[in-house]
Amino acid sequence: MTGRRRELLRRRVAIALTVPVGAVLLRVALSTPARDPAFYLWTAAVSVVWTAGGVLSGPVPLRGPSPRQASRLGILAPVVTGLLAAATVVGAALIARTIPPLRADLTAVLAHAPRGTLLPVVALALANGAAEEVFFRGAVYTAVGRVYPVAISTGIYTLAVAFSSGVALALAAVGLGFLLGLQRRATGGVLAPMLTHLTWTAVTLPALTLLLST
User: Fold this and answer.
1) Could you tell me the residue range of the domain that residue 201 belongs to?
2) Cβ atoms 58, 142 nearer than 8 A
3) How far is residue 207's CA from residue 195's CA, in Å, rounded to a whole number?
4) What residues contact 9, with CB distance under 8 A and at least 6 apart?
5) Average pLDDT in the 31-36 region?
């Protein structure tokens, strides 16, 4: 077995062990009753699992290996992309809240971020978003190899989210995961998708909380 194959095998084993653990913990976190302090502990545990899985699988590139690839998108473009993605999700939520099953999914998730406790929930969500990029656009994307890494990493990401939540978040995971996967492919690293994900989270969580409380 060549060194490249051994590296891929190590990455894939780490991913195979991490995905079910992270998905189960995320399901437990989102199933925790609203305002239960255990929600914060379970959510923090999810972040730790995604980060540990990404790091243990092998090096996670922040930027691409070539100067040209590393310079693509820069800092501002991923932030603007995150804002546009957030605006799209908020627009979709205006429609989703008129559909009872989708509104119920969103309300159940956002029940963990009532007014007065939004700041710590956003902080946890940001940590989770960064951890997801280390794992899904870092470790998983690299482990897939050259055959459809965007589609496969997005599929694994969507399955993990779908197992732990309802249809609404699973649909969001498809769109967001595909966008972030394209950024990873374009830049060769996780910095751009991480910036987009963090911007998206920082805008959508407060916006949806306000939207669905009215």
Assistant:
1) 3-212
2) yes
3) 18
4) 1
5) 85
